[in-house]
Amino acid sequence: MRHGTQHADVLTTEADLTAEELETALRCGPFHVALRAAIAARGLPLQRVQHHLSRYGVKVGVTSLSYWQQGARRPQRPESLRAVRALEEILHVPDESLIRLLAETEERLGPERPAGRSYRSLVEASGVLEQLLAELESSLDDGLHTIGHHERVWMGPGRELLARESHHIVRAHKDGVDRYVAVHHGDPGCSPERMTVRALENCRTGRVRWHHDTGVLVAELLFDIRLRTGDTCLFRYRVEDGTAGVSHEYVRGFGCSGGQYALQVDFDERALPVRCHRFTQHTAAAPRSGHHELVLNRRHRSVHLVEPRVRSGILGIGWDWE
After folding, report:
1. Which residue has better confidence, 255 or 318?
2. Tens digits of per-residue pLDDT, 160-177?
3. Exposed end of the chain (fewer CB within 10 Å): N or C?
4. Cβ neighbourhood burial of 55 (10 Å; 0-12, 13-18, 19+)
């Protein structure tokens, strides 16, 4: 009986703390903290939140909801803003509370960053990516864990991203996996419909989908066998791009931690950068950090980074032209 009484006291305290955290988050923000606190206060798993949204006629993926409450992405499209208003009812928070915090977050982040892709463009691309993956009956969780990923990027004489090649080592964490869906996000102004995806080793090119306005391309790379849980696979593919203007960086996003990643950027002898550096971002909305100058190998006209064990977030190499 005494143990039961103590347990009840703890539950009461936790509930009080959750309510207090929610009240503070709704008052002070930011948006993603308030959303996370509201979901926790209601005790709803994201699958249930998605189900409630569908009853309001709003379609939002569980992945998007997860990114929203982590601060990795923000709702921006009309359908997403409808979802936020529906969430205010579903989560029993005051009308306009989440919408207000979302607007304040937009204002605080200020104008789009001049270097690299803007936060807004990344958010728009994330929504498009979900749509394209849905067309391929795929998801961000493809049943594969990356053990190693070596990526090589070639820059052209016009300072454009000419092509990239990826060599993957993966392990299946469920039975029946027979494909990998590659994602390529071209530089602003690119034409994904003019890009080519080539399967180079241990895979075949399947269906390819793209979205012109955001420059997102997705492609199936089909294996010749169905992997069982624990099976490994090595495969290699190449994306021929060269459709955009001057490029200033190459970035790679990681949804989860684990695995080694190596990135090498090769420059044309007629267009060499004056400085190169690596950088990281915890989320697309966070400021860039971890800046470290990289030395360009003049003989081979290349620069690289190696991450022994990646963390979730964004990792990339940037460079400055004369």
Report:
1. 318
2. 999 999 999 999 999 999
3. N
4. exposed
- The encoded tokens of residue 56 equal 């309001």
Q: Which of 319, 322, 321 is nearest to 277 (CA)?
A: 319
Determine the Cα–Cα distance for residues 166 and 111; give it in Å rounded to an integer.
Answer: 33
For the chain, the residue count is: 322
Q: Name the 3-class secondary structure at 296.
A: coil
Find, among 172, 149, 188, 155, the residue nearest to 301 by Cα: 155
This prediction's pTM: 0.63
d(CA 120, CA 270): 33
Name the token pair of 117.
């892709």
Q: Can you read off the two tokens belonging to residue 274?
A: 């004056």
* Domains of the chain by residue range: 2-109, 141-320
pLDDT in tens, 99-139: 988 888 776 654 333 345 554 555 556 778 888 888 998 87
Q: Which two tokens stand for residue 259?
A: 């695995």
- Indicate if the alpha-carbon torsion angle 140, 143, 147, 150 is positive or negative: negative
Nearest partner of 318 among 114, 148, 112, judged by Cα = 114
